[in-house]
Amino acid sequence: MARLDGSTLAHGIGGAQDLPISPELAIAGAVAALTVSFTVLAVAWRTPRYDDGETGRPAPGWIDTLVAHPAFRVGLRVLGMMLFLYTAMAAVFGQDRVTNPFFGIFYVWWWVGLVPFSLLLGPVWKAISPVRTINLAFAKVSGGDPDEGIFRYPERLGYWPAAVGLFAFVWMELVYPYSTELGPVRLWCAVYVAAMLLGGALFGNTFYERADPFEVYSSLVAKMSVWGTRDGRVVVRSPLANLSTVVARPGLVAVTAVLFGSTAFDSFRDSTTWLNFLQEHDIITTNGAVGPDTAAAIANNLALLTFCAGIGIIFALATMATGVDPEIDRRSLPNRFAHSIVPIIVGYIVAHYLTYFVEVGQLTLILASDPFGDGSNYLGTGDLQVNYWLSYHPTLLANTKVAAVVVGHVLGVIAAHDRAIKVLPARHQLTGQLPLLFAMVGFTAGGLFLLFAA
Questions:
Q1: What pLDDT does residue 284 have?
Q2: Backbone dihedral angles phi then psi of residue 225, each to the nearest 5 degrees
Q3: Which residues pair with 58 in a beta bridge?
């Protein structure tokens, strides 16, 4: 992904030289934290605590009243449509240059921004989604019900369409050689909108809950927020209690594997190891950038697919490598434990994209005031300057990145342990978790290694 001013940007990761922490020390500390956490859990945590979704205290009355008020929901829909239309204008009438704010809105505000906004506010994309709003408008005009489509959404599909959509996005961002050319990205968005509107018409709002890649992504991350619902009321509860309410459906492992694997690949593709490989096999251009030739495209495609599929396969094998009661289908275990990957995804995304989101996000706000590249300043933000405070404090930045990875993995271990106590028989509740623990230790060590190697 190119920086919007035209220079190369590795998504906020400057490299090991910018992170003044020993990689070996960070990895050793993270592995020790996971091992100690598992040991403590095995001794002190013998009954499920976060597996009923009934915990939490009622939110303050004014919050519940505000969220339930129709005007609040309409306001969010209007906000989402305004952002959508403004972005569409930049995409259609803006200049085909990387300074077009459409690229920043697409890659930074939309993709990366879903994580912090969903963590703080809950499932924001569900609330502001323009495709939901357009589908709602069509339903009102035709006298239909947006919740009910022509057909019932097939249960066997689960989250698989969302996994495919997410992979299509990360492919566009990380592998497609023309990811900063206006035509292809604009076409991708048009196909996404068309597919979502067709799916909503056929299967109603259930389609968005399970097949919209960005709604599924946002809703999964929102499970790590403190906001939940019970009996139609807003409650404040532990993020781990929220996380336990993730419904295990087909394709859930695929969704988490794409999210985690693509972020790991994003680090790997900027590592010395990968760049040396491309150079040695003459599939990299002389100026050091991966060229749009066939060999480079094939190599990156295979690498991205390997990362996503590899993480999914490792996780599936680790969760199935345990003894279960005869009435439990071993093949159902990966999806039943997949929620435990969500904290790992959040931690690694925070570590990997932190400076990218903060700094290029500011640049996008500046450029957004001139969507057509004609010198306008519609939003009044065109004269602002990017604040590089985070980059000027590398020690704080490094500690934050490592802490995000470690905390995410520890929370993942806790979530997996709590689910194992409920799912696994008593004689396998400890030993049955070891394969998954080893997998998570591997994810931790690999994630931190890539974080420093990029």
A1: 53
A2: -85, 175
A3: 235
Radius of gyration for the chain, computed over Cα atoms and rounded to the nearest angstrom: 22
Burial (Cβ within 10 Å: 0-12, 13-18, ≥19) of residue 395: exposed
Residue 16: Cβ-neighbour burial (10 angstroms; 0-12, 13-18, 19+): middle
Q: Residue 361 carries which side chain, given as an amino acid letter?
A: G
| Residue 38: CB atoms within 10 Å | 23
- Which string of b and e fits 400-421 if b means at least 16 CB within 10 Å? bbbebbbbbbbbbbbbbbbbbb
Residue 153's nearest CA partner among 201, 192, 206 is 206
Kindly tell me if the per-residue pLDDT of 124 is higher than 90: yes
- C-alpha 320: how far from chain center: 25
Amino acid occupying residue 233: R
H or E element that contains 449 = helix 434-453
Mean per-residue pLDDT over the chain, rounded: 86
Question: pLDDT tens digit string along 174-189?
Answer: 999 899 999 999 999 9
**Hey, how many other C-beta atoms are within 10 angstroms of the C-beta on 240?**
20
CA count, 13 A, side-chain hemisphere, 34: 27
- Token pair, residue 168, equals 């299509």
Coil/strand/helix, residue 36: helix
- Confidence category of residue 168, pLDDT binned at 50, 70, 90: very high
Residue 279: how many other CB atoms lie within 10 Å: 13
CB atoms within 10 A of CB 447: 25
So where are the chain's domains? 16-453
Compute the distance between CA of residue 424 and CA of residue 340 in angstroms, rounded to an integer. Answer: 15
Q: Under DSSP, is residue 82 helix (H, G, I), strand (E, B) or coil? A: helix
